[in-house]
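Exercise 7 asks you to align residues with tokens for two separate proteins.
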Amino acid sequence: MIVKNKIKAIVCGTTFGQFYCEALTLLSDEIEFVGILSTGSERSKRCAANYGVNSYTSIDELEDDIQLACVAVRSGVLGGNGTELAEALLERGINVIQEQPVHYKDAERCIRAAKKNKVLYRIGDLYEFLPNIKCFIESAKAICSISKPIYLDIGGASQVTYPLVRILSEALPSMRPFEIKQVGRDSHPFDAVSASIGGVTALMQIQNEVAPDDPDNFMHYLHRITIITEQGRLCLEDTTGGVMWYGKMFVPVHDANTTIHADSSTDTSMSLPQHIRLYESKENSFFEVFKAQWIPAIAEDISCMLKLCREENKAEAGSYYTKTVYSAKVWQQLTAELGFPELIQASNNEESDVTKTIKDLQKKYIGESL
């Protein structure tokens, strides 16, 4: 289906789906947000009323001119019916963007349905569209093309290992082959995964824990990645953090008469910067991060989907499907090796004391101005 004009879209689900609702409002020049498909909960009804859109409880209720569905319902691999819903919408001739993670067999099934009905299927992933991660990916590509990667130091939480794999697949020269050598489970709260990614040795420290009553919280961090190359290391400090390059320290060897005062300042290797900040992360609240970064990132992901729909570029769509299925296979292999997450107790301890201490230290070492 070639999409040319402004299209009508719906959102399925209203937990994380509310982020998609907000993202669609940012794309009002291209998309008319017309409804929410849900189980009919009070929250979903309130959400639909808030956006002034229709509330649907069945695919059969959808109008024939709806061309895009954002499925923000847990997929089968997480115990939800998101994949069945996505496939049914594809069979209706509706383009679908389904929130990650999705098992590779489910992805293949949805891709087949998309091709059969001449529409497109995409696994939604806001993270690679965050400004700092776009910087990290671009920097990694540029640096790895001139400085060979030799080691990867990776951290993450089990709930967001799919986007971690997607970031790595975009940043590294190759993800193939992906091999897990060993999994160590004695470094609580992290499991240590020794792996080889595209021929590069990697250590992945994954927090494989979940609070059953609140599975989207209590992660120590979402992602951090360090790519060590022959000339230095590129660091993504955090999913919402900065991007830094650290050059390798090199102390030149001179003859016995050389002194640091006399010659080191003019030595080329000694005049290189010790580190270079490529992306500066602001001190935002979590609300500001969600509003100013996550929602625009989702909107950009949807825009990429629309671009493919408008161009009907089969080669580009085929390339996307190939990468998507392989990423899903790597994710499935990683999560299978990690096994079921350890169940932990949800804790709502206030962090005010920690924040106050950190602010006092910041004032001491950086100054009153911040």
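Second protein for Exercise 7:
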Amino acid sequence: MPGLLFTGGGDPPVTLPEPTAEQRLVFDRLREAGVGLVFMHHAVASWPAWDGFADLVGGRFHYQPATLRGVHYPDSGYVFDVEHTIDVVDPTHPICEGLGDSFSLTDELYCSPVFEDEVIPLMRTRFPVDDPRRFYSADQAIRGRRNSNEGWTHPAGSNLVAWVKRFGDAPLAYIQFGDGPVTYRDDNFRRVVRNAVLWAASSQARDWARNG
């Protein structure tokens, strides 16, 4: 995963390198060229030592406790294989085409910070993300204690699971879905991914980003 090196041991069992100047330059060039971007699932955990990536994508999943925008967060929460209902917030958006008002999906969910005031919401889960007891500690998982929340808690998470935002002149979409084969076989998941890629690559999306 970009910006995380899982060591399988040590304390903590992960190191967090910063992106190189060349890697940051790639993002700068994508932004300036207006290249559409689609991020999915664990991409929101990438480059935790670089706050610019959280700003870019619209939030962060933490494998380790960290300070983000002056707020200290514990490691984030996760829960696998949840069958949950997703409400479509903006059925008129191209990414939501063909989904109806709501749909069900079995997938992993996160309890982590999202910059809700900086993104345009597309979909929200009905799963109680405000209850950390329904989630497990990411830090404990990478220490070998999977599905454990002993001694762990977290502020209420966001129920936002899909959004779009502007990244300079580039249109950007983030979709939280995509943990494994059960999800990949789902027709609605495939529809969302297809819609997101087509939207991000469209002249309509590029014009929207540039005309902000």
